[in-house]
Amino acid sequence: MKPKLIPALIASVFALAACDQAANNAPAPSAPATASSNASAASQTSETASAASSTAEAASQASATAPKADGSMSTDIRKDNIGGDFTLTDGDGKPFALSSLKGKVVVLSFGYTHCPDICPTELLTYNDTLKQLGDEAKNVAVVFVSVDPDRDTPELMKQYVKQFNPAFIGLTDTQGGNEIALAKQQWRIISAKADIKSEKLYNVDHSSGTYLLDKQGNAAYFERFGAEAPQIASDIKKLLAE
C-alpha cells in the first residue's frame, strides 16, 4: 500500500518520525584508537543523537501546533489519499465499523486512556465543539481510537470517553493488534511505547491532531493539535452543508 505523500503540513505532526531521522543523521566522532576511547566515543555519539532527537522533536511539535500563514489550524486533505474503513471493538464489546457512521460528519482521533495531556485536551475540545454546533451536533459523531490495545479494554474505553461526552464512541483492538495496525496505516498514525517501567506501566508517543470525515466517510479536513472548538465547528458546518 503506497498512497501519495501527505503534505508536509500534516506530516509534521509525526514527531516520532522526526526523532528517528534526527537520531540516524547525528554526526559520528572519529574512529577511536583504544578501548577506552571507544567507550568515550560511543558515549559522545549517544549524547549527540539524544540531543539531535530532542531538538527535532521540539521543532516538529512546534510546527505541528503552529497556525498556517492565514491563522488557520486546519488543512483540506480531500485530494490526498488518506483514510479508509476499519472495524474495531466498541465499548460494549461489539464489532464497530467506521463506515456505519456514513450520513454523519465524523471527528476521528487516535490516542489512549492513560495519555497525560494531549488526548484529554483534544477530547475536551471536541465536547466544546459539539456545544458550538447546537442542534447540528446530532449529525456529528466523535470517535476516539486506542493505540494502546494492550491496556485499553472495551470497558475502559467506554468509561473513559463517556467522561467527556456520553455520545462519544471509544474503539479498541481485541484481536492482538492486527486491526489497529491496519487503521493506523490507513490514517497515517505513528505510535510507540515510551518510558517503559513495566509491562503495564509506560507511556505511548503518538501522532496528534484530528481528522474530519464528510458524510460519505471520506477524509476532508485535518485539524492540527491546538485547533480550538470554533475552528473545528466551522469546518464541520461546511461538511454538514454539503
Task: Considering the chains and any ligands shown, give keywords for the structure.
single chain, 242 residues, alpha+beta, six-stranded mixed beta sheet, 7 helices, 10 strands
Protein model, in words:
It is globular and about 45 Å long. The chain is built from seven helices and ten strands. The protein has a six-stranded mixed beta sheet. Strands 2-3 form a two-stranded antiparallel ribbon. A two-stranded antiparallel ribbon has the order 7-8. The protein has helices at 8-11, 15-24, 35-65, 118-133, 154-162, 178-186, 229-240; strands at residues 74-76, 87-89, 95-97, 105-111, 140-146, 169-171, 191-194, 203-206, 210-213, 219-223. The protein is 38% helix and 18% strand. Helix 4 crosses helix 7 (229-240). It is an alpha+beta fold and 242 residues long.
Poorly predicted runs are 1-67
Instruction: Tell me the number of helical segments per DSSP (H or I, 4 or more residues long).
Output: 7
Taking all Cα atoms into account, the compactness measure Rg is 20 Å
Order of helices and strands: HHHEEEEHEHEHEEEEH
How are strands sequenced across the largest beta sheet? 1-10-9-4-5-6
Shape by Cα distribution: globular
How many β strands by DSSP?
Answer: 10
**Which range does the strand content fall in?**
15-25%
Distance between the termini: 30 Å
Q: Give me the secondary-structure category.
A: alpha+beta
Give the helix proportion (percent range): 25-40%
Largest sheet: 6 strands, mixed
Overall average residue pLDDT = 79
